[in-house]
Every structure is written in C-alpha cells, then in structure tokens.
Design goal:
The complex is a heterodimer of chains A (298) and B (266). Chain A is mainly alpha-helical and 298 residues long. Chain A has a domain of 157 residues: MetI-like fold (Orthogonal Bundle). In chain A, strands 1-2 form a two-stranded antiparallel sheet. Chain A has a two-stranded antiparallel ribbon with strand order 3-4. In chain B, 75% of the residues lie in helices and 0% in strands. The chains are: A mainly alpha (298), B mainly alpha (266). The interface between A and B is large, with 91 and 93 residues.
Chain lengths: 298, 266
C-alpha cells in the first residue's frame, strides 16, 4: 500500500476542524477564562480577575458579614441531586435494558431487525417531545391520575410532576435506548456455545447468567452506563419540564446564571465543574475498558 | 410435547422486554391519540376531530418557526456533510499520522460535552461577537448547528469509506485515470449512501437541538423546539400534541429512510 505518500491528506479535515474550533471547542476555553472574572452589572463580565465565582460554587457568604463563609447548601443539594438521580437513571436503564437487549439479541435474524428498529426510533426522535409525552402522562390532570380517579382508587390527584420522581422517570425514559444499543452490540457477538457449556456442567439459569453471560457482556454494560450517565448528569430539558424550579439539576442551575441570576462567572465556573465531572467519568470509563482488555489478553 | 431446552432463554426476560417496549411507546401513542381529540383536554376524550391540526397548521407563529427550523437543519446539515465528507477522506484509509487522535477528539467533542455547557459557551462567545461586529443574524445559529452536526454526519460517511474496496481505485489508476478522475468516477459515487445517511442524521440532530438553540438565538430566531419549550410552561391544548405528532412523523420518516439506506449494504 502506498498510503504514506498522502501525508497531506489530513488537510482535508481542516475546514471541519476550523468550524469545530470556532463554534464548539474554542468557546469552551472562553468559559474557562470567564470563570475567573467578576460579574458585570447587567449580566456579562467585567475584566477583573477574581476567584469569587469558584468560591461561590461551593460556599455562601453571610449577608451581614461577607467575611463569614458557610457551605452553599442550595448548590450542594443540587449537585447531590444531579449525581444521585443520574446514578439511579443509569441503574434503572441497566435493569430494564439488559432483558430488552437480551430479548432482541435472541430473536431470529428476520425479526431482530424490526425490534432493533423499534429501539432506534425513540433514540432519534426529539427528546423534547418524549419529555412532553411523559409530562402529559403524570400531570395532575394527566392520563395516569385521570385513570386512577375514574377507577376510584384515589380521591385526589397524586402530585407526580415537579418531583424528583418525575425527573427520574423522564430521564430513564429518554435515555433507555442509549443503554440497550451497546448492550445489544455486546450480546450480538456472544458465543452461545459458552452458555451451553455452562448448562452442560449443571449450572442453573441464575449461575449461567451471573458467571457466564454478565461477565461476557460487561463491556456493553460499561459503555451503556457511560452513555446514559453523561447526558443525565448534564440534563437540562428533562429536569426543566418535569422538575420545575424546585427540583433543579446542575444544567438548570447553570442556565439560571445566564437568565434571572445574571452571574456569568458563576455560571461559567459551574459549567467547568460539570465538564470536570463528565471528563472524570470518561477517564474512569477508559481506565476500566483498558483494564478489561488487559485481563482479556491475560 | 415438552418445551425443548433453549440456552437462549432466560425466564422473565421476554416479559420485561415486552413491558419495556410498551412503556417506551405508550406515552407517545397517548400523545398522538389526544392530538385527534375534539375537546381541549389531554385526558378527557370527546370524540375524533382534526381541529387541532387545523389550528396548528394555520397558526402563523408555528408556520414561521417550522420553516426556520427546516431551513436551519437543511443549511447546517448540508454544510456539515460537506465538511464531514472532506474530514472523512482526510482521516480514513490513511496511515497513522501525528495529531490524528487530536483530530478525532475535536470532531467528537460536541458528543462528549453536555449541551448546556456548549450552549452557554456559545452564548458568551456570540454576545462578545455581537457587541464587536454588530452582526446579529442567523449566522451564529448556522455555525453552532453545523459544528454540532459534524460528528453525526462524520460517523456514517467514515463507516462507508472504511468498507470501500480500495482495489477499485487502484484499477482506475491502472486504467490511467488521474486522481481527480478516480475520485470523481469511483470513490465519490461509492460514498453516496454514506453521504446521504450523514446528511439525514445531521438534519434530524439539528431539528432536535433545543438547548444550544435556546442559548444562542437572538430575538426573532425562535425554532420549533424552542417555541415548544416556551409553550410547555403554560397549560397546553391538544394543538401542542398535533404539532408534536407532525414533528414526530417527520423524524420517524427520516430515521426509517436512514435505517433502510444503511441496512442495504450491511
């Protein structure tokens, strides 16, 4: 192959890279810079170096004596909620996604395509519309409450919208395909002779599941978990529609600093924190994947 | 006859899977059903009617934002597809070169960074540019959407290019085709399915993008998703269901076409 003489070929990527740097990566650097500036009076920033924004991410100043610092309970609650809801979302998606992916992977090839297609459709349809569908379902005058009222099971509607539960339900609903697809990819390559060998050696279904199948599809689990966790921790639309003002997540807190809050440096610092969490999750993922590959090679 | 033992069977899994599929589609089905409701409620069925579709289609604001969304998706995805095609040609079927990882990281960066972070990053950058250049047009939105579409357009184009048989191009040059002719008559036609798939993915992604648009848009640049996001704060009528249903139908149509195009060669 005489591929080496095309050393200039990478230049073909230059236009795409320019657009990406101008409208995606470059602005991120500016966010980093802005997190070390002082807030302007009407939004924006004034070009004075300050670490105040980063301090305010975690701490609050006393109203009467600004020198007195205490933990910013409101922020910490939101961080904790974001992480906890994202972990729960990942767990729910894994619990439902595993049987679903298994079901698809064990269909005959002809119908497998159709089932796979049925998972792919929600994956590519508008997240906003799917969140709206959940909102309609769980509103006080929504489908579920109307049904329960009609059946006489409840006297007054159950408040589901604007709770943590609503956000969790919505996120699990919209991110589920992200778990199923990599799990399916792992199961599709599964060597069923190994499963058969397990049964031949008198293993029970549970033992085969635990000692043979799950270890083999582990890469799918790990990939699916990272694919669900990252958009969940950065979610904005779903908590905004289903959670309202009382159950904010980090994305909403960031958005707030550029709306009513008008504290751009704080918003920038919060964005950097979110980015650090996402990069941390990705690094953790890559390390786990590398370790898996090492053990595989023996 | 006793059921034969299947190594592929795990008890309960089929039931959970079917329930999951039902849960995945039920909310959407309910949403679609109530778009045909004669009454103005989303929980009381008052008979079949197309009145909400009439209302949606004759709503001038909906017309305006829909046209803007479609125009934006076509423009951004069109530009992104051209750029992604060039990038795929530059990074696929080449020996490893320094900076390759860097290029991959840059191309895939919009997939990793949460949309809200990209959104506020662009808000800050656009605010700065607006003050300094005075330009406040759709250019910012096109650039933002294009950058966001590039990784999605790049994926199927690159996948297609990787499966191409390079002996065909060798044969072309053996038959005295110059590199331009070989590209024009051999490589490009073979890449077309990947390019179409890339454009369609980019189109769907741009059409769906709400967070980035919400933060980048200037006055009078509302798109269909940001319009819907704003409306959802109020009590909504089935008109919203009708708009959502039409939107869904378009997405499903494009995704189905994409699925068929990428399936055939597989």
């Amino acid at each position: 192959m005489d591929r080496d003489k095309h050393g200039w070929k990478w230049l073909l990527s230059a236009p795409a890279l320019l657009v990406l740097i101008a409208a995606a990566s470059g602005p991120l650097v500016i966010v980093g810079v802005y997190s070390f500036l002082s807030p302007g009076t009407m939004g924006g920033v004034s070009w004075v170096f300050s670490t105040e924004a980063w301090l305010r991410v975690f701490m609050a100043r006393d109203i009467f004596d600004p020198e007195v610092l205490s933990w910013n309970a409101a922020h910490l609650t939101i961080f904790w909620r974001s992480i906890w809801l994202s972990l729960q979302t990942t767990l729910i998606c894994a619990a439902l996604g595993f049987p679903t992916a298994w079901f698809i992977a064990t269909r005959p090839p002809s119908s497998r395509t159709l089932w796979l297609f049925l998972i792919t459709i929600p994956f590519w349809t508008n997240l906003l519309i799917r969140t709206f569908a959940i909102q309609e379902l769980i509103r006080n005058s929504g489908t579920i409450n109307s049904l329960l009222l009609w059946a006489g099971l409840i006297d007054q509607p159950i408040q589901m919208l604007f709770t943590d539960f609503a956000v969790l339900l919505g996120m699990a609903y919209v991110f589920l395909p992200l778990m199923v697809l990599p799990l399916f990819a792992a199961m599709d390559k599964l060597d069923f002779r190994l499963v058969e060998a397990g049964y031949d050696l008198y293993a029970s279904r549970l033992q085969v599941l635990w000692h043979v199948i799950i270890p083999m599809v582990k890469p799918g689990f790990i990939a699916g978990s990272i694919l669900v966790f990252i958009p969940a921790i950065g979610a904005y639309v779903t908590p905004r529609i289903l959670g309202g003002g009382r159950t904010m997540m980090m994305g909403n807190l960031i958005g707030l600093q550029f709306g009513q809050g008008q504290n751009w440096p704080l918003g920038a610092a919060l964005s950097m924190l979110l980015l650090i969490i996402v990069v941390g999750a990705l690094v953790f993922y890559l390390r786990v994947v590398n370790r898996e590959e090492d053990t595989r090679r023996g | 006859m006793a059921r034969s033992f299947s190594v592929k069977r795990l008890p309960g899994f089929g039931a959970i899977a079917l329930l999951t599929f039902a849960m995945l589609y039920l909310p959407i089905v309910i949403l679609v059903v109530y778009s045909f409701n004669a009454g103005s409620s989303q929980s009381n069925w008052e008979g079949l009617s197309l009145r909400w579709y009439q209302a949606a289609l004759s709503n001038e604001q909906v017309q305006e934002v829909s046209i803007r969304s479609l125009w934006l998706a076509a423009t951004a995805s069109g530009v992104a597809t051209v750029l992604a095609t060039l990038a795929a040609l530059g990074t696929t079927r080449v020996s490893r070169f320094p900076g390759q990882t860097m290029i991959y990281a840059l191309i895939n960066q919009p997939l990793m960074v949460p949309e809200i972070v990209t959104g506020i990053a662009l808000l800050i950058f656009v605010a700065f540019l607006k003050v300094n250049t005075g330009y406040a047009g759709m250019g910012y939105m096109v650039a933002a959407h294009t950058a966001f579409c590039i990784p999605f357009a790049y994926l199927p184009i690159r996948a297609r290019l990787e499966t191409l048989d390079s002996t065909l191009e060798t044969a072309a040059s053996d038959l005295y085709a110059n590199p331009v002719q070989a590209f024009r008559h051999i490589t490009l036609p073979l890449m077309v399915p990947g390019i179409i798939a890339g454009f369609m993915l980019g189109f769907v992604i741009s059409l769906d993008t709400v967070v980035i648009t919400e933060f980048v848009k200037s006055a009078g640049q509302e798109t269909l998703p940001t319009y819907m996001l704003g409306q959802l704060r109020r009590v909504v009528t089935p008109e919203m269901n009708a708009i959502a249903t039409l939107f869904l139908a378009l997405s499903i149509l494009i995704v189905t076409a994409f699925f068929l195009i990428t399936r055939k060669r597989g």
